[in-house]
From TrEMBL:
Protein name in UniProt: Glycosyltransferase
Coiled coil: none
Keywords, alphabetical: Glycosyltransferase, Transferase
Species assigned in the record: Acer saccharum (Sugar maple)
Molecular function (Gene Ontology), one example: UDP-glycosyltransferase activity
Name of one Pfam family that matches: UDPGT
Alphabetical list of InterPro entries matching this protein: UDP_glucos_trans
Region listing for Disordered, in residue ranges: 1-20
Family: Belongs to the UDP-glycosyltransferase family.
Biased composition (Basic and acidic residues): 1-12
Length: 492
């Protein structure tokens, strides 16, 4: 990544007359990827815009996958500069027992101490687009008279819940997860307490306090960009724009600009091996298994998954990580750098048994290239929002395996509202999903008529997603409208 000074000089040599927008993601691939794709879309489709992509660096965040993605020339068009925020040491503040969002927020808070000087050195951009957990930027940017736009990397349904949270917090005593009825968000589909996001499941912990703090500041944004599109989430989008509850907050204008997904990605030799193997498989015949950047299974669940896949007799590619019995998101900050030798934890004889049928990839794969491949017909996914957008955009049906954050909400939407996913179930009193159930659901998705119906539904959504981002489509228009606003904004 370029140093701040060098990037600043470069900007002045090559892009002086352009409007300058800065983009600030929180740590974590699920935040970095959609905002980097937004930055790319801004410079590729709007040649009058120059983007500085600000990267938070701490000693607690060591992801090889992140560095490779941000460094790769294929993902780095002219007009887009990657700018390192001066690194901070958070090892004295971050504790091992901190939950994932608390860690993110602590890293962000420390890093933003230098945001003001970074923005001044960059010549005060016309606008700053921030991730949901970077709201410390509001105060700093108000001193510099830079308008701040929030970017919701999860769904609009998540956004409506987040906007409603301060009201819920005032009205409900005790834990939300203990409520006897689904939670009604004005104008939106109710959320079952069981499906609530991790961040609000325990109101006494720090994670909840951070989440509440950032979400309660959403109304301060000049606008909110969402990684979704009009036809896909028409109900919550209508609610946000028209329901009296959201109007009185007041809710800033919402810009659905998605799906924003990775276009090109750097590939390693194992990725090339995967794609070549896929070339030799029949259409829609391969199941891809990946659990986002953080997702890990317990030792017991990994064993069941391995034998369940083998029992299903379906072709598969499995992105494998060392099991973790304590934390379902254990590779979130070090994905691609994690120590990982599948032979040391896979059941004996498994790799031999699956030869020719399944491929195992360590830690990280070129997910989008695999989903885009015509041989891929199913995706066992943790239902992170980026993975959801990527699967739908490539017309791949889903087996929902939610693990952390808001993934249970996403899984409910995919299975119950949209009918593009199936969900395996645990037996009564079981702590893992058994191999027989995994095998049953995999076969159902890959071989049955029901699986075909799901695939045809997801292919319709794929077409709708493509229309949205095409020239003249709803997301294209929404982004153009925002860019026009930025272009017309006069610098104070
Ligand atoms: N991803 C990838 N290869 C992998 C695992 C994940 O490229 O082996 C990418 C995936 O394509 C997606 C992102 O990492 O863009 C994960 O984001 P998501 O919102 O799905 O989940 P999170 O990591 O935030 O839980």
């Amino acid at each position: 990544m370029a140093e701040l000074e060098a990037d600043h000089d470069h900007q002045h040599q090559t892009t002086k007359p352009k409007k300058h927008v800065a983009v600030l993601p929180s740590p974590g691939m699920g935040h970095i990827i959609p905002l980097f794709e937004l930055a790319k879309r801004l410079v590729v489709f709007n040649h009058d815009i120059h983007v500085s992509f600000l990267v938070i660096n701490t000693d607690e965040d060591d992801s090889a996958a992140r560095d490779q993605y941000l460094h790769s020339h294929s993902t780095h068009p002219p007009g887009l500069d990657v700018v390192d925020i001066p690194p901070v040491n958070v090892s004295d503040i971050v504790r091992d027992d901190m939950l994932i969002l608390t860690r993110i927020c602590v890293m962000v808070e420390e890093s933003l101490k230098s945001l003001k000087s970074v923005l001044i050195k960059l010549g005060k951009p016309e606008a700053l687009v921030i991730d949901l957990f970077c709201t410390g930027a509001f105060e700093i940017c108000s001193e510099l008279s830079i308008p701040v736009y929030s970017f919701s990397s999860p769904s609009t349904a998540f956004l409506t819940f987040s906007l409603y949270l301060p009201t819920l917090d005032r009205e409900v005593e005790g834990e939300f997860v203990n409520l006897p009825e689904p939670i009604s968000i004005p104008g939106c589909s109710p959320i079952r307490p069981d499906d609530l996001l991790d961040q609000v499941r325990n109101r006494k912990n720090d994670q909840y306090k951070w989440f509440y703090l950032h979400m309660s500041r959403l109304p301060l944004a000049a606008g909110i960009l969402v990684n979704t599109w009009e036809d896909f989430e028409s109900v919550p989008l209508k609610a946000i724009r028209e329901h009296s509850f959201f109007l009185q907050l007041p809710t800033p204008p919402v810009y659905p600009v998605g799906p924003l997904i990775k276009q090109d990605e750097p590939s390693s030799s194992s990725d090339v091996e995967c794609l070549t193997w896929l070339d030799n498989q029949p259409a829609d015949s391969v199941l891809f298994i990946a659990l986002g950047s953080g997702g890990t299974l317990t030792t017991g669940q990994l064993l069941e998954m391995a034998w369940g896949l083998e029992m299903s007799q379906q072709k598969f590619i499995w992105v494998l990580r060392k099991p973790d019995d304590a934390d379902a998101s254990s590779t979130f900050f070090n994905v691609g750098s994690d120590v990982n030798d599948p032979k040391s934890y896979l059941p004996e004889g498994f790799l031999e048994k699956i030869q020719g049928v399944g491929l195992v990839v360590k830690s990280w794969a070129t997910q989008v290239a695999i989903l885009r491949h015509p041989s891929t017909g199913g995706f066992l996914s943790h239902c992170g929002w980026n993975s959801t957008m990527e699967s739908i955009t490539h017309g791949v049906a889903i087996i929902a395996w939610p693990l952390y954050a808001e993934q249970k909400m996403n899984a409910a939407m995919l299975t119950e509202e949209l009918g593009v996913a199936m969900k395996p179930v645990k037996g009564p009193g079981e702590t893992v999903v058994r191999r027989e159930e995994i095998s049953r659901v995999v076969r159902l998705l890959m071989e049955s008529e029901e699986g075909e119906i799901i695939r045809s539904r997801v292919k319709k959504l794929r077409d709708s997603a493509r229309r949205a981002v095409d020239n003249g489509g709803s997301s294209h228009n929404s982004l153009s409208c925002l860019v026009e606003k930025w272009k017309n904004e006069i610098k104070p």
